[in-house]
Design goal:
2 copies of one chain form a homodimer.
Chain A (H helix, E strand, L loop, with lengths): L3 E6 L5 H12 L2 E3 L1 H10 L4 H8 L22 H22 L2 E4 L3 H4 L6 E6 L2 H11 L8 H23 L11 E4 L5 H15 L2
Parallel strand pairs in A: 1-3, 1-4, 2-3, 4-5
Chain lengths: 204, 204
């Protein structure tokens, strides 16, 4: 049986680490930044620029060139985001076609719905996420807890908006996932091992 | 390590079956109707009457007698529900004190929060739940799909209201659980085995 595992995650919940460890443990491919790298190869955009578009930051617009086709026009922001999303969707589908894999974020659960992926959502309470971000240096060191909380909520809000825009579904709503896992009281390494066993049992 | 597992569940999702099988597989106690039976022993109320109060149906009010204390007054509905809830809470805490166990429903996740239980929420999409209810004869056979959907939504609404009333938390909101499991695309037996392995790994 094919194993396609998609991971949606709260910022700071450890979802990315779960994904990376899970792929390693199951011996399957892991796609996260790899998607951005592949995007950069196929377009005239830098990885940094693509990441900014993904995160919907306000950025100066650049014309996008995909493959050998040159787009002579400047697009309004949404158009460009849509082009990036469309190209990224192709890459994700190609990757999932190639081999078993874990894909983090990027609406992969929705994009690959015909492949019947195991759709995970990893979340945690705010206290845990603040602690984790601080411990890992994921945030500016001078941020107060209040500032860090605002930052975390801001990232989540963008993820929710992005997911809603392209899937017309609610990000983090259990009905869009097979398994939602709260990492607040779990050790990520132990959790990953337990999850790997769960997946081996249910998808063998 | 003590294993206290609480299960909240959508009506028709198979949560109760998961609980029963899980307890059997892990070799620990299972409490569901057992709580009602114990309640009936300790009060002058019948099991049927207690179940009606639990489900917040409109029922004629009876005076409740707990243990040897006779309550001479008739209570308004909420007071009686509260008394039943209070007595039930005691029973649940006693049961969790006695041995490892799986407890279905009844705000056990909240009541036993100091024991750090593993809090599961079992859910499924409406299509699955309608199919399951029909296959198991959980609903009146003459109900249309539309009628069955209304019945299912009605039970869930009552569970949500009950949970909110006694915990001041939102029923089914992932933040109140450690693991939320969508049974729509899973085989309950396989799921239970996978879940048992997950629990053995994370709580050993």
């Amino acid at each position: 049986m094919r194993r396609i595992i998609t991971i949606g995650r709260n910022f700071g919940s450890g979802g990315r680490e779960v994904g990376r460890r899970l792929a390693e443990r199951l011996g399957i491919a892991y796609y996260d930044h790899e998607i951005v790298t592949e995007m950069a190869k196929r377009t005239n955009l830098t990885e940094e620029y693509i990441r900014q578009i993904e995160e919907s930051r306000t950025i100066p617009l650049l014309p996008i060139t995909i493959g050998m086709t040159f787009s002579p026009q400047f697009y309004p922001m949404l158009d460009q985001s849509l082009q990036v999303f469309t190209e990224q969707s192709k890459i994700i589908k190609e990757m999932a076609e190639k081999s078993d894999c874990v894909i983090v974020g990027r609406c992969a659960d929705y994009l690959l719905r015909e492949k019947n992926p195991l759709r995970l959502f990893i979340y945690a309470d705010m206290e845990y996420r603040i602690k984790r971000c601080r411990a890992r240096g994921d945030a500016d060191e001078d941020l107060s807890d209040k500032g860090l909380r605002a930052r975390i909520q801001g990232v989540d809000k963008e993820r929710a908006r992005y997911y809603q825009l392209y899937t017309n579904q609610t990000w983090g709503d259990p009905e869009n996932y097979d398994l939602c896992i709260n990492t607040s009281r779990m050790d990520i390494k132990v959790l990953t091992e337990a999850l790997a066993m769960f997946i081996e049992k249910t998808t063998h």
